[in-house]
Design goal:
Length: 162
């Protein structure tokens, strides 16, 4: 397994992983699938803050982070996205990707990392808790997908100063 910086050429593999989550689960509230072009641009914009886990040349998951909110007061707070393909789960890839993102974020002045997690994804809550994230909020019924109201759980972790 290799963790490396994502490249625009990874957009198709990332879209294939992400779009299944968008289409078939309540893990994300969005219903709009990602296009390769949009993802390639997103990877380019976040160059240095977007990584993939790959094995034998196949992308098995990714992590990226970016601004939590706009405005200078939030400049040291970031929110991340972590998604794994089914064959990448339960192998430590998520943990390795998150450590890479948190290490990079701390080295670049990020003080707090935020996770916005669908309450329909208790595995992600447990995963983040195991990484030292604490639940700091719950917004009931702020999302709607597949005819269901969804709660959003916020978790955060203060990163070590670099």
């Amino acid at each position: 397994m290799n963790i490396r910086t994502a490249r625009p050429a990874d957009a198709a593999a990332i879209a294939a992983i992400w779009n299944v989550i968008i289409r078939d689960t309540l893990i994300t509230f969005t219903t709009k699938e990602r296009t390769e072009a949009t993802l390639a641009a997103h990877i380019s914009e976040r160059q240095g803050a977007f990584w993939v886990a790959e094995e034998a040349g196949k992308v098995l998951g990714f992590v990226t982070y970016g601004p939590f909110r706009t405005g200078p007061g939030y400049a040291t707070t970031a929110e991340h996205t972590l998604i794994l393909a089914p064959e990448g789960r339960g192998r430590g890839l998520g943990r390795a990707l998150m450590h890479k993102a948190m290490e990079h974020a701390a080295a670049h002045g990020i003080h707090v990392m935020v996770a916005g997690i669908s309450a329909a994804n208790p595995g992600a809550v447990a995963f983040h808790a195991a990484l030292g994230f604490e639940q700091t909020g719950k917004l009931p019924q702020v999302g709607r997908k597949s005819g269901q109201w969804l709660d959003l759980i916020f978790m955060q972790k203060t990163l070590p100063s670099s």
